[in-house]
Each structure stands twice: as C-alpha cells, then as structure tokens.
Amino acid sequence: MKEIERKFRDFLNKNNIHNKKIVIAFSGGRDSVALFDLFYRYKEKFNLKLLAAYVNHNLRGADSKIERDFVENFASDRNVEIRVKSIEPSFWKEKSGESIEMRARGVRYGYFTEITQKESADYIATAHHLDDKIETFFINILRSSGTEILSSIPEKSKNIIRPLLNVSREEIDEYIERAGLKYIDDETNFENKYFRNKIRNELIPVLEKIKPEFRKNFSAIFRYFDEERKFKIAAGKKALKRILIYADKKNISIDYVKFSRSKPALRKIVVKIILKKIGYPAKPNAIMLDILSKTLKNKRVFYRKSNLLIQSKSDRLYFTNVSIKEKLSVIINKLPIEIDTKTYGFRFSEKTTVQDYKNVFCFKRDENCFPLTARILTNGDTIFIQNKERKIADILQDMKIPKNLISSGLAICDNQKNIIGFYIFEEFRVSENFYANPNYSTVTGERL
User: Fold this and answer.
1) For 154-165, how does the pLDDT look when each residue is reduced to its tens digit (9 = 90+)?
2) Rg, C-alpha atoms of the chain
3) Domain end residue (candidates: 182, 212, 242)
4) What's the pTM?
5) Strand pairing class (21-25; 49-56)
6) 78 and 185 co-located in one domain
7) What letter does residue 203 receive in the DSSP assignment?
8) Rounded CA gap, 311 and 108, in Å?
9) Tell me: the pLDDT tens digits for 176-204?
10) Residues 6+ positions from 12 with CB-CB distance below 8 Å
C-alpha cells in the first residue's frame, strides 16, 4: 500500500500538481475508486481542489442505476462534488461507423473536457494503470499502428494526467483490499467480445505464466520508447522549422523541395506534427505517405480525405483542415481595431510613416471610404490591379497559392464594397487606387 502511495506522490511532485483543481474521471470501478481515494487522501498535502465527473452509459440495464447510486454516494461520503451525465439508451441504437466501445469513450472524454472548461479546472485525472498500458501496446502492435505509438499511453497529455500509469493492477487490488474500499465490478470486463478483453483475459495470463515479472520489464521498455519518441518529436519540430513557410490554425505551407529531400522517417514525423498543429485528429497513413513520396519525382500532390486536404503548388506543399469554416464580416468605423478570424488575428491601425511599403500590408487612408469592411475572400472577388479589374483567384495562381484556398484570405473593402486590399498566407496585394505613399496617412495591418 505504501508503494502505490509513493508512486502517486512522486507523480504529483514530478508534474508539479500542487494548488490545482482536478476533475477525477470516475466510473465506480476498482481502478477509479483507488484513484479517487488517493486524491482524497492527499488533497490537503498538495492543496488540491477535487471534482468528480461520471457518465452513466445506461448500457447495463438495472445495474446502471446501481452504478450511478454508488458513485454519487462514494463522492458524497467524501464531501466531493460530482457531475453526472446520463446517456439515453436510444443513443446507442443510432447508426454510426464506430463501435459502441469507441462511441462511449468519445462521450466520456467529451463530457470530462466540457466539465473541465466549465469549472476552470487544471486537469482531468484518469485511472489508467500499467496493465492498461501493456494491453494498449499489444493492441497497437496487432493493428500495425506504427512505431511512434509503441510507447503506448503517456503519463500526461495536454490537460489529461494518469497518476497510476506505473502502478500494476495487482498493486491496485492490494490497495483496495487494505483500504477496505468497495467498488462496482463491470461484468463486461470478463467478456471476450471486445478486443482489449481478449488481450487482458487470454494473452496476459500466458505472459504471466512464461515470465511472472514481465510487467517490470515492460515498464523499462516503455521508458526507452518514451525517450526515443521525445527525440523524434524534437527532430521533427526542428526539421519543420527549417522548411516552414506559413502557419495558422487551419493551414500550414512548407517548402516541398526541401521536404522531399528529407528521409522518409523524418517526413512522417513532420507530417504528424503538421496534422496536430492544424487540429486534424488522424495520424499519417500509408496512402497519405505514399502520395507525399511523389514529391521525390516532382509530381503534383493532391490528397483529400475527410476534412484533410494536402496539395502542392509550385515549390510549396499545403496542408489544410477544411472543417474549419471562416465566417467573418466586421464593420470598421475607426482605428485602431483588432479582428479575429478562426485561424488568425489582425490589428489595423493608422500610421503617418511606414519604413517599407512593399513588405507591409498597408494602404492609403481615404476618409471617404469609411466605414470599411473586413471579410473573408470569396471566389468571385476582384481587385483593381495592373490597370484593370482582376479576379483574385487568378492572382493567387501568380502567388503560388492554390485557388481552392481562397477562403483562407482576408479582404478589406471600402464603403462601396470594392476591395482595397487582401491578405493571404503572409502575402498581400493592394488596389492601385489605394497604394500607400508618404503624402498620406497609412492604414497598416499586422498579424497578431
């Protein structure tokens, strides 16, 4: 019992979990009961504010009511507030491409995140332990998920912490027994219709028989994998920095010639980092990486799946999360003003002098043009440039920007709805009628 408490304290100290507000992901099962009890024991020592969150999936008939009563009483007995979400049974009858197991996980984490944000909590604490990590390792191996996930479940990821990740199921059982804690046993854990349960109930016992101390060995292996993973990510970030041209929350463009010259393993890491930066949840798959390998042969790249778009234009490679839809229309009556799109922010102000007109998004201030309008570029937009009205989509071609990314740009219009200038991917163009010059006050736009 003292060993599990030592590991728990070490985790809190190592990750500086002091003076924090914690949402405990609580199910009433053995593991989460142990986690709850440990937090309760040490809340004063570490000055923690605790809140429990529980999702009743209503998948187990009358047992679901028993489970809910148990978790509410457990929290109440310890004077810890609990938030409860109940899922209607009809929800599970709706058609979905996901298994019930995956849908349930999505519902739980969605609710835990919602409560964390609503309560301004610092962390969500889950009860994953060493046996869970080993099981996940084998699941990933058998699904050919790739070497980057061999380290399995991380101790900490963003605002999710897993204080028991180096604690075995056996240690949890011992803690529960010595502390005299009650818990709810989910009978589905013993059914082998779920892939994880097959690993737990069939493969793990064989490993125990062959090598009883296998958990200790796996714990050491995971440390090696974690060190390697951190090294790869650092190398990937360094490589991305060298080839990065532009980045916001929706788009990233890189020098695809330099990208092509990178080793395949490094390209994969770079792509993984890029997808994470633009908020796309999937990892690079074999098809995507094969298409990107065409850059080695100077062929045009175009890849579209779900909400991810990858395409090349000249010597650039663009990654776009198309699920992020820009909707913006802001009236500008006076300056300065800050404008936020979903992917980037801009500050417009008035200046009497500008050092470099060619490299700053700026235009002549004309009082007769106010109020101005800031909005998202659209396909039919035109601008007066090169002594004529030109389609902005055609100008993007000259700028080595794909036409289909036009909605990533910001347009500034006068009171007659004519476009004064536009900004896209750190590039800008201004109507010839509004070229800035030293004889006029100038409006400048700066990325925030």
Assistant:
1) 888 889 999 999
2) 28
3) 212
4) 0.71
5) parallel
6) yes
7) I
8) 35
9) 999 999 998 866 666 666 788 888 888 98
10) 18, 42, 46, 163
Which residue among 321, 344, 377 closes a domain? 321
Q: Are 397 and 436 in contact (CB under 8 A)?
A: no
**Alpha-carbon distance 140 to 145, whole Å?**
5
Beta carbons of 186 and 149 less than 8 angstroms apart: no
Residue 291 has pLDDT above 90, yes or no: no
Nearest to 346 by CA among 357, 362, 359: 362
User: Which residues span the domain enclosing 351?
Assistant: 329-447
Cβ pair 258, 243 in contact under 8 A: yes
In a domain, 83, yes or no: yes
The answer to the question of residue 152 being in a domain is yes
Same domain, 262 and 343: no
Six-digit token string for 297: 């042969």
**Structural domain includes residue 81:** yes
Domain total in the chain: 3
Task: Return the exposure string of 14-33: e unless at least 16 CB atoms fall within 10 Å of the residue's CB, then b.
Answer: eeebeebebbbbbbbbbbbb
User: In the Cβ-directed half-sphere of 377, how many Cα atoms lie within 13 Å?
Assistant: 27
